[in-house]
Amino acid sequence: MKSDRLIYLPLGGAGEVGMNCYVYGYGPEGAERLIVVDLGVTFPDMDGTPGVDLILPDIAWLAERADRIEAIFITHGHEDHIGALAHLWPRLKAPVYARAFTAHLGRMKMEEAGLDPMRIKTVAAWPETVTAGPFTVGFVPVSHSIPESAGLAIDTPQGRVVHSADFKLDPTPVVGEPFDRDLWAEIARPGIRALTCDSTNVFVAHPGRSEASLAEEIERLVRSAKGLVAATTFASNVARLKTLAEAGQRAGRSVCLLGRAMRRMITAAVETGILTDFPKTVTPEDAAEIPRENLMLLSSGSQGERRAATAQLSRGKYLGLEMKEGDLFLFSSKTIPGNEKSVLRIINNFSEMGVDVVDDASDRYHVSGHANRPDLVEMHALLQPQMLIPMHGEHRMLRAHVKLGQDAGIPGFVAPNGAMVDLSGNAPRIAEYIEAGRTYLDGAVQIGALDGVVRDRIRMALNGHVMASVIIDEDGEMLGDPWCEVRGLAETGRSKAPLAEVLEHDLGRVLASAGARLLADDDKLEDAAKRAIRRTAMDEIGKKPEVTLVVSRLG
Amino acid sequence: MKSDRLIYLPLGGAGEVGMNCYVYGYGPEGAERLIVVDLGVTFPDMDGTPGVDLILPDIAWLAERADRIEAIFITHGHEDHIGALAHLWPRLKAPVYARAFTAHLGRMKMEEAGLDPMRIKTVAAWPETVTAGPFTVGFVPVSHSIPESAGLAIDTPQGRVVHSADFKLDPTPVVGEPFDRDLWAEIARPGIRALTCDSTNVFVAHPGRSEASLAEEIERLVRSAKGLVAATTFASNVARLKTLAEAGQRAGRSVCLLGRAMRRMITAAVETGILTDFPKTVTPEDAAEIPRENLMLLSSGSQGERRAATAQLSRGKYLGLEMKEGDLFLFSSKTIPGNEKSVLRIINNFSEMGVDVVDDASDRYHVSGHANRPDLVEMHALLQPQMLIPMHGEHRMLRAHVKLGQDAGIPGFVAPNGAMVDLSGNAPRIAEYIEAGRTYLDGAVQIGALDGVVRDRIRMALNGHVMASVIIDEDGEMLGDPWCEVRGLAETGRSKAPLAEVLEHDLGRVLASAGARLLADDDKLEDAAKRAIRRTAMDEIGKKPEVTLVVSRLG
Among the residues of A51-196, which ranges form H helices? Predict the structure, then answer.
């Protein structure tokens, strides 16, 4: 019989910022009992995933072993950690554990998906623990940009593993628990076999700043404004919303929340007792009656999301409210790579209105929720793990994080998505490579990233699309002329005649001269039609479109 | 008779960074003689312009007045200033003037488009001038990130206007002329009626750094490398290529240029006498034989362009060359907003190979080609224009630039694309709004941005596409069942049956129960079919696809 082993397997989040999903296992090889940490999403974009609603980790490996899953732990309520829960849970069906605020958000997701919200169990912070097969897991509070983020202390028969989750070292986080060095030192006391650690900000050289450091600067900015003040941040950043709202209040302004996501987060924080003293807010209807110099709006959509309140304000009236010459708009947020153009569009819209925009370039009105380089060094020193496995980052970040650990004498290891690491020995080693990938939520359906569906969309967008219809009669002969419709292509080209007509004419000629054998064979017919259409289109408009041929065979 | 007036009209570049095209006119209202400054392009992206090859300014207004155009002046050879020349020239047909290096690049473009390269006249630097109707125009050298950029001194019957073009205040630009304060003071002496001025870097607070300041840092970096060193920058940044190549040479490395664009620029610079002492380069074939610690590659594609040398190196072998563990890759360039994801993809690919990447985050190996905020203040002070009209920038930049001028007592004015400004009075005023917009070069055809072609592509990419074919026989009845083909949609949905079959079945049922009048009317038939298909698709997969119906009527 083989001896038991301790494994770690990232299925998402190691090689990207987003879509976090990590697996730990313990037991005989191939029969390990498993726990899952986080089920997050990442967001689609027009470049690579047009039309897709959400990107989920491919959990095929896990789903095939669902009977071996003891529990799912959610470290905090950010979408890249909890967003896939309700979409993937039906294939895993294990009990879900989270702290109160996170559990609250998770239950809302389960309910919306028609699932039983009571599958999610609330767990108190360390020293409370959950026993899940060979694992005993405790939620150890960390500070982050959402309430109740928690690192996990995972006790196994081979010692303790710490999964840092998303964290920063903030002694004054405004909402929620400060980072507690003594508590973490206690966690470290028995010795840490491995630390899987957040790598997001490994390239940021200065020590992280506290959330509390923003209050004064923001208040000064709000006080300096003559007209309406509006600000945006991540809806889940409850502490920032509080800082912004309090700055508004102290500057003599009524505060109005715009956007469902923001109101939802505030409500969740109040209902779970995390937020006790948020300034009183007014409704948008009431806000419209308040003199603009006495009003502060907090609007959702800091990443330029087209339908969010911020984007709508930048395009004109929203719920009766409107930005004007002399107003101030504050982005109390960082723009995530890929969202720059959307955010700049909003800033330029505001500029056209005469609104002064303060963005993250100033670095005075936003702090990150992740540990910077010196903070990571401190965390390593605090935990002194036997080995460091960076997670939550692009490959370049994981690689830099390993080097950072090595500088302090901690051996590290880049384990990208799909790399199953055996943590049992003195040094980690790759045990196996698992097929890890992405699944797209597309409308109501989950499709594989490699199914070709999205590839076809991209091709239609790049090349345009020609649909041709050919009727073959009972005798195997072409009935009438072929018909063509074009979509996403110039209406006329070199010959100045309508493109569809030129295509029909040329296709008709090609097929008329083709033999009966070609017309009888769907594949050959399609091939010939595609070639004819592409050749003509290339001549006419200099493009080779996608072609779909519909062959109708009568009789 | 109306009195003569002096007008300024941006058709591109005022409200964006890119697609520069500015018009000046002098004469009676509606009969002004015109000159055009720059004919640039901007680049398409998947978000808004999938499949498009280039974005050109919409010059309909100019083309209708082609008989009034005296000349076209190209300030420098960057694509956002010269890229549309050969595409738009046939509609303008005016003589084109540029300095030698720019003219050389322009002639290559004309030749490739089958146009007469001799339409482009070479002009020497100031004090040489070109007389174009009521205008006398001189090319006054400025420093920038391409050789021979020139501001224009435009003398009119109402005084001198200065069009700054793209510039920085660089006393040691490595290649080309330094910024010459005395020369510009001389230009300013008669008084400047208006300054139209580059706004790109108005938000950059520190004074610009000289190109020459990079040599030492880059050489130090190259010397520190143990393995192969590769670097990328804009192909047109001849000075930077020289700095990089010399650093390689001094560090004992042979230099190899990868990428057609780069070799082309170097050749143009040598042929026009601007570049006299570029280090000797080796071919890729020879480079493959040189020990990697003695080799430096300069590769094109600093913005992550998929087909450029840099991206290819990041994916594996390119022309027999390959990056490996311990090699160094330097981005001696800034990532333009919108290109972040492409550049990060390359950096992460290199990270997976074990290559150390140095990017623009360090700010040590790249300097901008545009005047920063303090440099703009200096330029304003040097020229002391009666009025300032910012150009070459997003709206937020133009607006900030106006404020900057106002701080120094210079009245300014945001004139976005399409705003015709009358410069005749003491203060500028908008005379008229012209329809300004964008034209897409799509394959071999130019299409209007509002033609709906690209909108259709985006819709197909977001929603997928269903093609249905219905045959109506001589009696006006449906012949057989409808046929459906789907593209860019999940193959199966809720019912687990193939989506195309479910659509065919439902569509067949709907049309079978439709009356003869509906089947006889193409529009009504199409409407009914679209509704039926979208409803079924929504039920099956939760998406409403684009639908194209091909109706074949027999007889």
Answer: 60-63, 79-82, 85-92, 100-112, 181-188
